Amino acid sequence: MSDAVGRRIRTVAGLLVLAELVVFVLVAQWIGVGWTILATLATSVLGWILLARQGTRALADLRERARTRRSPGTELGNAGLVAAGGLLMVLPGFIGDVVGLLCLLPGTRSLVRGALTRLVVARLPVGLRPPVRVESVRTAEVPRAGDLRPDGSGSSRLVIEGEVVRGPDGRPPA
């Protein structure tokens, strides 16, 4: 199986390099070779600047979580996305720059994290996927049959009526 995964990764990497080359040639034809090289250098410098700024912020958030002994959760994901985004911005190529910028900017980072989460969860075996989510239609307090007290009062339990919007396999129910 690892050979198939390695082959798939090499194929995707080769296609990405080819796409970057095609975009580079198209941009060079549009604005000229000199301006294209200058734009590539400028986006690399911008990548370094954004990586320094956002990376420092992400590491400060992680340190704060560690200091207060709270789970790193989202902050750890942000640090990973900042690192990946910075690497993509520093490497030459316009497609990588766009994806890297999406990973580096705080406003779009949550979109990238959500897309990656959906991609990973969809590839997990059903037993390892997170719980099914439901949307509540209405709630009602229903008394428990054995919990009634002599005075007629009793404890109640919360019953939530709803419908399953996504099953354990990630798809809507049939």
TrEMBL record:
Membrane-crossing residue ranges in chain numbering: 12-31, 37-55, 76-95
Region (Disordered): 143-174
Biased composition (Basic and acidic residues): 163-174
UniProt keywords, alphabetically: Membrane, Transmembrane, Transmembrane helix
Entry-linked InterPro entries: FxsA (IPR007313)
Superkingdom: Bacteria
PANTHER family named among the record's database cross-references: UPF0716 PROTEIN FXSA
Name this protein carries in UniProt: FxsA family protein
Origin organism lineage: Bacteria, Bacillati, Actinomycetota, Actinomycetes, Geodermatophilales
